[in-house]
Amino acid sequence: MVRMGPDVPLLNEYKQEFFWKRFPQTVLGGPRFKLGYCAPPYVYVNQALLFLTPWLFGGIGTLLCQLKLLEDLHAALLSGLLMLGTAVGVQGLALYAARRTGTVERLGVPNILADEEEVEFTHCVGPETLRFIAPGKRFVLNVVLHTLLAGALCGLGTWYVLLGRLTALYGSVGVSLVVFILSWLTLCTAEYSLIVNTATETATFQAQDTYEITPLTRPLYILTFIAVDLADRCVGPVAELQLTSQVLHVVFLFLPLLWALGMLSPLDALFLWGMEQALVFGLGGSPMSSNLRLVGMFSMSVCVTVCTFFIPSTLGVTLFSVAMGFLLSIDLSQFGTHCRGGSRATRGDSGWRRGATPTPPKRFGWRLGCSELLLYLGLLLGAVAEAGLIHHFLWPSQNQASGPQAAVGYLLIILFVACWALREIQGAYVFGVFLNPLYPRGMANVRVFKQRSAGLHVAGAVRRVLLNLISPFAMIAFLALDGSVEQLHTASLSVGFTRASRVVWQSSEDALLHMVLVVIVKLAAGDTQLPGWEGLGTGVQLLLVGLLIDRLLQFLSKLKFALAVLVTSWTEKKQRRQSAGTLLALNASLCPVLLSVLLLSALMSAPLLPLFTLPIFLVGFPRPQRSWPGPVGTACPCPDSIYYQQMSSSLAGALRSAFASGSLGALAPGSHFLGRFQDRMVWVMILERGYGYCTINIKGLELQETSCHTVEARRVDEVFEWAFERPERLGLNQGLNLHWGNVLTPCAALPVRVYSDARNVLSGIIDSHDNLRKLQDDFLKALVWLLLRNCVQRRKMFPRGTEEGAGGRKSQSSQLGHSTVTQPAETVVVESNVSSLKCRRDSSSLTSFGDWSDEDDLFGPQTARRTVALVSTEAQVGRPEPQMGLSLPGSVEMDSLFENMALSALQPLQPLGLGLGLPAVDKGRNLEVLPRETSRTLDPISFSCPQSELFSLPPGWRTAPLLPSRLHQLGHLFPEDWFGFLLGRLAVHSEVSDEVSKALREDEGLRELYFQVALSCLVSLGAESAFTSPSYVYRVYCGDVPWTEGLDWLSEHKELYQLVLKAFRYSFKLLFDQASLGPMESPEELFTTLEDYEKDWYIGLVAERGWQDSVLQEKPFLFSLGHDLTMGTYTGRVLSLQEQLVQVGRLNGEGVRGQWANLSWELLYATNDDEERYSIQAHPIMLRNLTVQAADPPLGYPIYSSVPVHLPCF
Fold it and tell me: Which residues does the annotated region (Disordered) include (predicted)?
């Protein structure tokens, strides 16, 4: 975000013009009377005639009925047949126009200044005109279905608004005439949208209408109104039905307004929302994590309820309801997984889009095993036995204030108070306002934090026992003792009892609250019979109480969200627009209207939509709790996604414990939580809740913080700092939550295994001449260690018996055949930019492009390059290595317009036909001074010790095109003492005797072999004297080795090159550690450090695949070297895996749903995708930018999103 503040436009000029063309189409149902360019009058006339055609046909039928020439039913049939014929004609013309425009193209000069939607009209019935007015349908089935529905809708609509019917309802001809006219406007908008051209609806749930469902939305709403009127006519004089019909006839007039405001759901969202509401409040279930699970669970729950109604015995109803309520409240899919053996791991797109279900701890109650299955079986049998015995031996008492049921009621009250108190003391705040004095604060050490939290863990364990084991049985006893059990064969009581028997398991905490309220009403009434209440039965009472509490909590959350939007529109200076005062005055003067909007959205369980996130509140259309239609787990992955994927498993385990103990408050599907650690933001949403489990979705937000992201992240840090890092002994004035109005309320700090990111500027380290000289010595030591270790590893992978004959040394040809061997375990795959000498001869001189990069890449090049391991693999299977993928020596590859193609992969530049920068070359002669040695000319090395064969190197590694005299001049650089020390240590690991170890150290042949190979590698890197500059060190570290005399030889031996680059990186890490912690005191310390690097460290570049794999494999430490081009400094980055405290807070769920509803309206209807639009700017109270990021793609852009994660939290 570049521009921030109140002057940011809501819609840019182009989008404003687009919106004012689209909105009238939505209001009228599809006619395009505002085009933005000049069109012939017949275009508008044709649309107006088609729009009024249903009214014309309905008027004919109404007139004939009023003149007594036709009965009302016959008049409706006539209107329907006329409309059917017109619909057939319109669809035929649309098909004709589609075929003409699909086969005939007009030739002409395109006007580049014309609007992209402009159509060139030639005739009033020309193909372009017909295609513009009636685009037609994509599917033949929809052509038939929509045509038939258009005729039926016109006929039924005529019958619905006959003047005689309206006069009978309202008793006034004037009122009936007004209703008749406005009702036909509603019918015309629906008919036009169905058969001519479908309008884009403001209530859009899917990004694309693939199956053409949108045209059916308006007709089906109208058919619902007609169905109520039909019931009123057929049933007879029922006062309630007649009143409902009168009201709906008035509401019918405002349907176009409701459609234009987006208050009525599209069919797909309405279907899912209706099933979800029925499942939760009518059947006692929970919102589900996917649409398929929702349909399946709804179907099973309906079947159970129907079976309950037809069971003749009350005892059978009780036993069946209790048993099925328990079975449906647990996640049955996990039992199938357990039976198939093992926990299911879900894989996904490159490990980024799909996370894996974390492996739960092996303690009892935290995973689905045999012990848990036996526990569930015991609970099921115990619940059924309890219900049956109580129903058989203890008859329900008629006295509400005494008897067994009253005693159980008192027990329920005690359990509720105890569970509520134990839950409140778990979090950082009590009631979300007062700081909890029992919660430990200011604890940076995880071990100390756990010790201080031991008492809270005990309280959480007690709460789990009370809530999961004792409360359900107490509630079942209360239900079994209710008097309504004897009347279960009525539909309402059967539904109520079945729901109550399930909800005690599905959501024990909520059920306990609902039952306590019912108990309080019963105890307060005593022997007094409450009219209309007692006859409902306890099951229906619980249903109504649950629905009322849910709507009340929604209203309060929406009210808090609305107040935050209103107040911050003035108090936050960066949010204060010129219209802020006017909007505040309007909301204050229209306060009853505002409260009505809040109440209506709460009753409909619909999001409160703040238009453009301004204090202009609308009722969004009802939709499922998940808010998005697509499957859970869609994200916009990037290289940073791996950090969230790594921490998701540990975070899920920490959330599992927090959910079970209650430290995150009451859990309900649709709840949102925000976690913060260093630069990482984790968004957690509860998708599903049942007995002993919870299903969540974990999202990771971007790490490359924009200005808006930074502003909101800073406020999040302030909110968490006030809750968790304040001194424990606070005064009364400091013991309050000063950020109460914020959408985020801190809950708890959770210990999570996560990578801690430390970044250091290497000024004074990498540019020190002493350090650069020391780097040469450390490089040789690390290289010798890696060469020896590689031999040992190769010997372990290929035992002696498979490589050698009967006691003899293998031949030179055999050794040459095995010069390229399989990489041993623990080998780090590095990436390089080396190229062949032939490529250099045919290329012009190019300098480094590193200084020309536009990217501020702190930790190495980000472009994807072919790895050395990949090249080796291609060579082994016989595929030729493509030359175009090689790069010039001395150049740094950068991102270009050719995606991941390196600049050096382009055709070589030959400016003016001159080869600049390279010496003159006689291409007719061989330039190599030294012929490359082969296995025939290579002198064999004789070992004085037979065991030296264990440490022999491939012969090809001794074929460097370097003069022996040049190597011997560098003999003083070879670390002979270190070489002898390593032979002794590695010989011990190889179980060799002391005599053999001594013989190895005295073997001159072995020493000469390593002397030659190590110094050849040193010369090939261009480090004969020393590493000259920090830039040279950085380029070698990145694998961009400048050209030297021996580089081609080194690049041909992939394994050796890999070991050399790895040794250089190890030596630089040694330099970094010694500059920070002091020099190495002994060879033993150096050896231990290198072993530690190999075992616990990944030392490379952030852009390498090995870095990502190491993060996912949870390597304890990672190190990378980077270059800040803007500051001209070199940086070191260290990731260390350790258990850290991740601070977690609860978000206002209604605030999130409201902002997501506005985001859906802005992007899917207004197409306002401007990256600097007002509704995405930073808002420190509403966390607007973070909320937009956390939305599902394509509207949001989280960089990581897990599949639904099942958490056993019994």
Answer: 799-824
